UniProtKB/TrEMBL annotation:
Encoding gene, per UniProt annotation: araB
Domain Carbohydrate kinase FGGY N-terminal span(s) in chain numbering: 3-274
SUPFAM superfamilies to which the protein is assigned, alphabetical: Actin-like ATPase domain (SSF53067)
The name this protein goes by in its record: Ribulokinase
Keywords associated with the record: Arabinose catabolism, ATP-binding, Carbohydrate metabolism, Kinase, Nucleotide-binding, Transferase
Species in which this protein is naturally found: Shouchella xiaoxiensis
Length: 552
């Protein structure tokens, strides 16, 4: 009997999946929420955070990993010697600074009051000024790496976050021995091996398989203290995704209740783990990982320049292909905002009387409408725009509100806006000779909201295949764990072999409804006009509103 473990570290919680390789089934799952959650208002000691900050506590990750692994092992009464591999996926770019002993700076009381000592979560957008500075310098110098990221550097990525620390907390920058992606740090904790994933390094760290990192000349001009950053504070071997990072150490084996020497895979970005998990391992197959945000991932045999792409990386998601990533930073988050902040008491009462939650009630009411009936158009930029505009300064909008507008109208318009945003992304790929031949969807939203997925099928006028696993990203992580173990140990020699056996997808897709397709075609053209108006030609309106808000 052989098992592998996949651990999925999300924004609010971590979950561990135990997979039985003999029965080819998911055996057990355990979930643990992070004790400190997302720190976006204050630090644990009460220190207030500025707008656009999003931090986390690193011990939450270790505690969640320990508790979930021990739970699934106990639940199935598994012999630790039968676990042959461990895989980790993690949100990115989520980075933390370490001291010379390899410990997070925030765990030192001397630094705990300073926000820069903590883990900066992927949706930390306070480094937008630094991202703009990097983009402008790269444009001025005509740096080739900029083209691989759609012409703009995101505030979510590693270098802007490091530059922000250097400018605002230079003493902490000096004390930092290593900056690491949180997923790579956990692999480091498990194995003692300082390995950086080609996946996170390529998408979030500006690394390229052929050219390496940005030149020292560029980095020096950006800031003199960054000249040797990749040799010093970002040192470590970049290892191709799908490879073994190392073996579980004695200390961590005792903590987790496993066996020292167990294979540990190279870390992978959480959404990217879904690609092999749904079997989308061929060129042209796009995977939408849909949750609080949406990540769009696409494999290709060719490297083309595509506007607003968050990364074009060789061996990025799967070895042997050029992998593209784009994204929308507020999908489920925007629906949650509406339900938590803008719902009237009568909706709460109605949902309670029917014994359903508010999301379900709104979906039911919104499903009674035909496309365009509510007379609204929303722009899906509630947390900025990642693709294709790559602009964290943008904000959301709902246009067409009247005194007759009802909560279900707004809710449906928000669902539709995210579908329009995805279609913009798909069309941008198509227009740049990167074909999109099939769509797969996974994550929490496709499982919970049928109307949501039907709207996507109608807006995109495409069949959409849904993942057939409750824990698709953890499954993907487990697949990488099985690959790290190798065939001789009972796993697989390649991630493609693992996908043939372990991938889970429904064979019957969500199909577009012809009459809805026609109506949404008209509405989408209107969305495109507003997208260009507010996102390009008059984006200063959005900027001015944000500026006024920040000074009040």
């Amino acid at each position: 009997m052989s098992y592998v473990i996949g651990i999925d570290f999300g924004t609010a919680s971590a979950r561990a999946l135990l997979y039985n390789l003999k029965t080819n089934k998911e055996s057990a799952v355990a979930v643990k929420e992070y004790k400190h959650g997302v720190m976006d208002h204050t630090l644990p000691d009460g220190t207030k955070l500025k707008e656009d900050w999003a931090l986390q506590h690193p011990t939450d990750y270790l505690e969640a990993m320990t508790d979930t692994i021990r739970t699934i092992m106990d639940e199935e009464n598994v012999n630790p010697h039968h676990v042959i591999g461990i895989g980790i996926d993690f949100t990115a770019s989520t980075i933390l600074p370490l001291n010379a002993a390899g410990e997070p700076l925030c765990l030192d009381n001397e630094h705990a009051h300073n926000p820069h000592s903590w883990v900066k979560l992927w949706k930390h957008h306070a480094a937008q000024e630094e991202a703009d500075q990097i983009t402008q310098l790269a444009k001025n110098r005509e740096e080739t790496f900029l083209k691989r990221y759609g012409g703009k550097i995101s505030s979510e990525w590693m270098l802007p976050k490091i530059l922000q620390m250097l400018k605002e907390a230079p003493h902490l920058f000096k004390r930092t021995d290593l900056f690491m992606e949180a997923g790579d740090w956990l692999v480091y904790q498990l194995t003692g091996e300082l390995i950086r994933s080609s996946n996170t390094a390529g998408y979030k760290g500006l690394w390229n398989k052929s050219e390496g990192y940005p030149s020292k000349d560029f980095l020096s001009e950006l800031h003199p203290q960054l000249k040797d950053i990749y040799d010093t504070k970002l040192r470590g071997e970049v290892r191709t995704i799908g490879k073994k990072a190392g073996a579980l150490s004695v200390q961590m084996a005792e903590r987790l209740g496993l066996v020292a020497g167990t294979a540990v895979a190279v870390n992978v970005i959480d959404a990217h783990a879904a690609v092999p998990a749904v079997g989308a391992v061929k060129p042209g197959q796009m995977v939408l990982a849909m949750g609080t945000s949406t990540c769009h991932m696409l494999l290709s045999e060719n490297e083309n320049l595509v506007e607003g792409v968050c990364g074009t990386v060789a061996d990025g998601i799967l070895p042997g292909f050029i992998s593209y990533e784009t994204g929308q930073v507020a999908v489920g988050d925007s629906f949650a905002w509406f339900v938590e902040q803008a719902i009237s008491a009568d909706v709460v009462i109605a949902a309670k009387n029917e014994g359903i939650n508010i999301h379900t009630w709104l979906e039911k009411e919104a499903n009674k409408q035909v496309p365009g009936e509510h007379g609204l158009m929303a722009l899906d930029w509630w947390n900025g725009n990642r693709s294709i505009l790559v602009d964290a300064h943008l904000s959301g909008a709902i246009i067409g509100l009247t005194l007759a507008t009802k909560p279900a109208d707004i809710y449906r318009s928000l669902l539709e806006s995210t579908a329009y945003g995805t279609r913009i992304i798909v069309e941008t790929f198509q227009n740049n000779q990167v074909p999109v031949t099939a769509l797969f969807a996974c994550g929490g939203l496709p499982k919970k909201n049928k109307l949501f997925m039907q709207i996507y099928a109608d807006v995109l006028n495409r069949d959409i295949y849904l993942a057939d696993s409750e824990e698709v990203t953890a499954l993907g992580a487990a697949m990488f764990g099985a690959t790290a173990a190798g065939k001789k140990a009972g796993g697989f020699d390649t991630i493609y072999n693992a996908a043939e056996e372990m991938a889970r997808v429904n064979t019957e897709p969500i199909r577009p409804i012809p009459e809805n397709v026609a109506k949404y075609e008209t509405l989408f053209q209107l969305y495109k006009e507003m997208h260009e108006h507010f996102g390009r030609s008059h984006k200063e309106w959005m900027y001015q509103l944000r500026s006024i808000k920040s000074t009040v």
